[in-house]
Write a structure and sequence with these properties.
This protein has 4 domains: 123 residues; 95 residues, 2-Layer Sandwich (Ribosomal Protein S8, Chain: A, domain 1); 116 residues, Hypothetical protein af1432 (Orthogonal Bundle); 72 residues, Alpha-Beta Plaits, CATH 3.30.70.1350. Helix content is 69%, strand content 6%. The strands form 3 sheets. It has a 3-stranded antiparallel beta sheet with strand order 1-3-2, with helices on one face. The chain has a 3-stranded mixed beta sheet with strand order 6-7-8, covered by helices on one side. Strands 4-5 form a two-stranded antiparallel ribbon.
């Protein structure tokens, strides 16, 4: 339809152009006839010339009309071809769209069918599973949990050989891979961090020249000793040891103030409430300056001289704090060297590790002031308050394993703390803690079936377990040793390592008569 309209318009335009041309030619011919030149001619000559002129003009107009018509037809054909090509492309695109819609409709129907089939299959499987479960429970006379437990025990029994073999292979493989590298790293690290092996001890007992001096310390009606205890915050015990006075207090700084003040008072000889107050005040001022000086020196030695003054004062109190006989300043400096060496070996942030090692035990000087919180939790809170560094706080507070280590640096701090605390001569247990640890190791071993006796030896660094041969075989020994070691790792805190040795011996005896 569109093509016919365009063609009609073009043909009409060509006809109109031809008519206009003839009109113009006619007007031009009439004007020439009126000209004098034509009037002077005879009628026949004029008609002859006019006829020739008209024929010439008519031929020219006809040629031009043919040319216009040819151009118009060519243009029409081009337009027609272009429109026809566009119509074909549109038709092809429409066909593709229709085909795609048909495919999508088919796929949607197939998906709906599959989804319905899947839902039905799930229902069928659930129904069959419930049916078989009930049938199995009836046949076995066991419920689900009982059957599960029985099956697990059966599988464990069948896999004892494989488990024992795999455990041994895994341990040997891990040992082979780690021994060589760990040996060189630790040797290099320990060489860099070598420190004194003799741990300092805190002084809580002051020797006296004679028993009479105790009376001077107590004073008339106990005035001197009450004043001294009130101002220092320590308990003065005068009755336990002859020619000695014991100072008792959880705060090591207070105990140090009391020790120095009492020695000065005894050296001066004037012991009464007035001199006691003046002496204690002066000693407190001296100790305060000493604490600040010690804190600045420790921070400088660690490489962080620009810490806040509040943290500097807490670090200064490390001199008077001991853990299992190990002085906190020496432990901290040793940890800094260990941590820096380990961090450098594995490519961790050395500065972060050093700062975390410096501050990891800062809570120990505050545990007597903040009740109900372990020291490493307090350390994290102090770092967050004054340094506002979450990564540093986590690295410092995660060294005991009860808080998740969120970075490689936190793990390195925990390793450095364990190495420093467990090396020979670093620490010593008091008697009560030692007995508790030994008993705990033996109790863990006795919890496992087939264990006859268990003995913690070598100061708790090895536990030997004796099995009942009639209740356990040789394959059980390896498995029980592995389980005991994992239980010790999970429930106990101990320096270094604990070796677990499981022994099974079968003896056959007969008498010849």
């Amino acid at each position: 339809m569109t093509i016919l309209v365009v063609l009609s318009v073009l043909l009409g335009s060509a006809g109109i152009g031809t008519a206009i041309y003839f009109l113009q030619s006619n007007k031009q011919l009439q004007s020439q006839i009126k000209d004098k030149q034509f009037q002077e001619l005879s009628e026949e000559e004029a008609i002859s010339r006019s006829s020739e002129k008209a024929k010439s003009l008519l031929l020219k107009a006809k040629n031009e009309a043919i040319e216009v018509k040819a151009k118009t037809e060519k243009k029409v054909r081009e337009i027609y071809d272009e429109l026809e090509d566009k119509e074909k492309r549109l038709e092809a695109r429409e066909n593709k769209i229709v085909q795609r819609e048909q495919v999508l409709d088919k796929e949607t129907e197939e998906m709906d069918t599959k989804e319905k089939s899947l839902e039905q299959a799930k229902k069928d499987v659930k129904r069959l599973r419930d049916k078989f479960t009930l049938r199995l429970e009836k046949i076995a006379a066991l419920n689900r949990e009982q059957a599960r437990e029985k099956l697990l025990k059966q599988i464990e029994e069948e896999l004892k050989d494989e488990i024992s073999k795999r455990i041994k292979e895994a341990e040997m493989e891990a040992q082979r891979e780690s021994d060589e590298k760990a040996k060189w790293i630790l040797i290099d690290t320990m060489q860099k961090s070598a420190t004194d092996y003799v741990a300092e001890t805190t002084t809580t007992t002051i020797d006296l020249d004679s028993e009479e001096i105790k009376g001077k310390i107590i004073g008339k009606e106990g005035r001197n000793i009450r004043t001294f205890e009130k101002l220092t915050g320590v308990d003065v015990i005068v009755d336990e040891s002859p020619e000695a006075v014991t100072l008792s207090c959880f705060d090591p700084v207070r105990r140090e103030v009391a020790s120095i003040a009492l020695q000065k008072l005894l050296k001066d000889g004037r012991v009464h409430p007035g001199t006691i107050e003046d002496t204690i005040q002066k000693v407190k001022e001296d100790i305060g300056r000493e604490i600040k000086k010690n804190g600045e020196k420790l921070a400088y030695d660690a490489g962080f001289p620009n810490l806040p003054i509040e943290i500097i004062r807490l670090l200064g109190r490390f001199k008077y704090r001991y853990s299992y006989g190990q002085n906190l300043i020496k432990h901290t400096l040793e940890m800094i060297k260990l941590g820096a060496a380990l961090a450098a070996e594995v490519g961790a942030d050395v500065e972060l590790v050093k700062k975390a090692c410096l501050l990891h035990d800062i809570g120990k000087v505050m545990v007597h002031e903040i009740e109900g919180k372990p020291h490493h939790i307090i350390s994290g809170e102090v770092i967050r308050k004054y340094l506002r560094d979450e990564k540093l706080a986590n690295a410092a507070e995660a060294h005991h394993g009860d808080i998740e280590a969120k970075s490689l640096e936190a793990v390195i701090v925990a390793i450095a703390d364990a190495i420093s605390g467990s090396r020979p001569g670093a620490r010593r247990d008091n008697y009560d803690e030692y007995v508790k640890r030994i008993r705990a190791l033996e109790d863990i071993a006795h919890k496992f079936k087939g264990v006859k006796e268990a003995y913690a030896i070598h100061a708790g660094r090895e536990i030997r377990v004796i099995l009942m041969p009639e209740e356990a075989n040789d394959k059980d020994a390896q498995l029980i040793a592995h389980k005991i070691s994992k239980e010790i790792e999970k429930t106990q805190q101990y320096p270094g390592t604990v070796k677990v040795t499981v022994i099974r011996e079968f003896r056959a005896e007969e008498k010849a008569e």
